[in-house]
Amino acid sequence: MNILNIIKISYRSLGRNKLRSFLTMLGIIIGVAAVIAMLAIGQGASNAVKQQIAGLGTNMLIVFPFASTQGGVHFQAGTTSRLTQSDATAIQEQCPAVEYVTPIVRVVTQVIAGTQNWRTIVFGAYPNYEEIRNWPVQSGSYFTDSDERDAAKVCLLGQTVAENLFGAGTVPIGETIQIRNLPFKIIGVLAPKGQNANGDDQDDIVVAPFSTVQQKLAGTIYANAIFASAISSSAVSTASDEITQLLRDRHKLTSGAPNDFTVRTQTEIASTADATTKTMTLLLASIAGISLIVGGIGIMNIMLVSVTERTREIGIRMAVGARGSDVLTQFLIEALSLSFAGGIIGIVLGVLSSQFVSNIQKWPIVISPESIVLAFIFAAAIGIFFGWYPARKAANLNPIEALRYE
Amino acid sequence: MADPIISVKHLVKIYKMGDFEVHALRGISLEINPREFVAIMGASGSGKSTFMNIVGCLDIPTSGEYLLDGIDISKMDRDELARLRNKKLGFVFQSFNLLSRTTALENVELPLLYSNSRSAAQRREKAMEALNAVGLADRAGHYSNQLSGGQQQRVAIARSLVNDPVVILADEPTGNLDTRTSVEVMEIFQKLNERGITVVLVTHELDIARFAGKNVLFKDGKISRIAMVEDRKIASEELPKIPVLEDEMES
């Protein structure tokens, strides 16, 4: 028997029952559309989460000038910091996995504005502190490389400092504050950052050029720390290894000697972010999978009802010479066509509805071609899987009983 | 004389209903020759339907021999029986058994769809030919539910013809029709028979059986009598005698 004829027979019979065919398809349409939309919205959401977590500065590495502790014993206890600005320059030049580097010098001191004063930390850093911490200004602007070169007395205030010195809601750009009796011009206010993982208020800070703080406030030739950022979150451990090796060489440590510095990364945050994203994807995929299976059961349900309802038709077909395999193929093709057509309509509907959601909710969506292929293959597989049993049942009908069926 | 189209010997069919057995056929032997028009008669439960199912290759006998056009079908599987039904047999049923929501033409085409050989155009031509033979060429595009009972049965006859079967098996073809339409249907069978097609008809109506050339009477799973019809009725002559219902009402 010619397969083209069977396809023709299947299509005629689907066409004879347009409403039933459509209702059967509806399950798959909704299932596939749900898969596409869920994956698009979910992927968009997880990308947004990733970006936000990257915003926390998971690429960041911090080099502290202290020895590691092993078994509770501090090695080289009491040795002074030997991290320098030139260490930072060397890291910038020689570590390919590192994007930005700045030496940091910290001074804890009183800052005074008119009659108000506040005790805070003054950070000295390069202008690339903005990129390393992923910390833009809320108003005003960062200091520049020439401010750094000239040791200009300019500074940025954290939200907490700005509020305590000038009151909430004011923009103190252009004002001057006194730090250790030196006037610093305020050129910007940092965006609020909130607490860090330790519960410390990160907005309680003043940031000024490294050279200014080092020379005019701290009076040291060393740096308290070096902040760096890796080129990507996956390059953090490579960057850490490169920095460790470079600093060991520069500090002329013999192979057995312990490090006189510590490199800290935020891989925990990164791995938490990763786990969160995976959980979210799994959750969405399982919801979408369930809706597809429900759609498939819908197809099976209708096909089973249809076999019963069409028992006499099957009997007629068998009487005029249809073999069991012809009937089986016909019903399978019907189920497959329904799930294929449903799959295509579902994909269109899914893309449209996720775009709709993205327009209404301003939610970023990502429609990956993989999700479309996946949904389609799944729909086809469900068509075969759930179409098989009713088709088998139809093919095994006894023609005499089928013809007598009322 | 030519070899018989249908030849059965000692045909036995036993249905098992749980613990006890129903002997539907208790040894039937019968030969039907080409161009014959045979009416099989009998009361309900006499085994005539079982006999037709076996002759129609829808069922296989428990024992005995059945040769259809010289082919032994008793050892055949489901698929081989299906092919045989498609190539050698045409069925006409009491309840017409047309596909619903399907045009007359598509209904007639159906057996051709299950045999390989023809193109779509050839199928259409063949189906139109068959519809023409039953006088319904002008109704080809009508859906089966738009046709009267008599017309539906004629479409069914066209469908049974379309594959050039060696024999047409009609199971109570007039059972659902009024007297006049019944005679019209018998007229078609007689015409087809004159053209050389073998017809086997099951009926319990004596009137209808008299349109056939030979009557076979079944009783309790056996043949109780075979007789040639002596005063055979010719449908085309009978028709004018039957008043159209409307005319009768008016007079």
How would you characterize the overall build of this protein?
The complex is a heterodimer of chains A (406) and B (251). Chain A has 13 helices and 12 strands. Chain A folds into 2 domains: 3-52 and 272-404, no CATH class; 60-265, no CATH class. In chain A, strand 2 and strand 3 (73-74) form a beta hairpin. The model of chain A has no long low-confidence stretch (mean pLDDT 84). Helix content of chain A is 56%, strand content 17%. Chain A is of the alpha+beta class and 406 residues long. In chain A, strands 4-5-10-7-9-8 form a 6-stranded mixed beta barrel. Chain B is an alpha/beta fold and 251 residues long. In chain B, the strands form 2 sheets. Chain B has a 6-stranded mixed sheet with strand order 6-7-8-3-9-10, with helices on both faces. Chain B has a 4-stranded antiparallel sheet with strand order 2-1-4-5, covered by helices on one side. In chain B, helix 6 (179-194) links the parallel strand 7 and strand 8 (198-203). In chain B, 44% of the residues are buried. At the A-B interface, helix 1, helix 10, helix 11 and helix 13 of A face helix 2 and helix 3 of B.
Write the layout of secondary structure elements.
The complex is a heterodimer of chains A (406) and B (251).
Chain A: H1 3-16, H2 18-55, E1 60-64, E2 69-70, E3 73-74, H3 85-94, E4 98-113, E5 116-125, H4 129-133, E6 137-140, H5 145-150, E7 154-157, H6 159-166, E8 176-179, E9 182-190, E10 205-209, H7 210-218, E11 225-230, H8 236-250, E12 262-265, H9 267-309, H10 311-319, H11 324-361, H12 369-395, H13 399-404
Chain B: E1 6-17, E2 20-32, E3 37-42, H1 48-55, E4 63-68, E5 71-72, H2 78-88, E6 89-92, H3 104-113, H4 120-133, H5 149-161, E7 167-171, H6 179-194, E8 198-203, H7 206-209, E9 214-219, E10 222-228, H8 235-238, H9 245-250
Parallel strand pairs in B: 3-8, 3-9, 6-7, 7-8
Antiparallel strand pairs in B: 1-2, 1-4, 4-5, 9-10
Helix pairs in contact in B: 3-4, 3-5, 4-5, 5-6
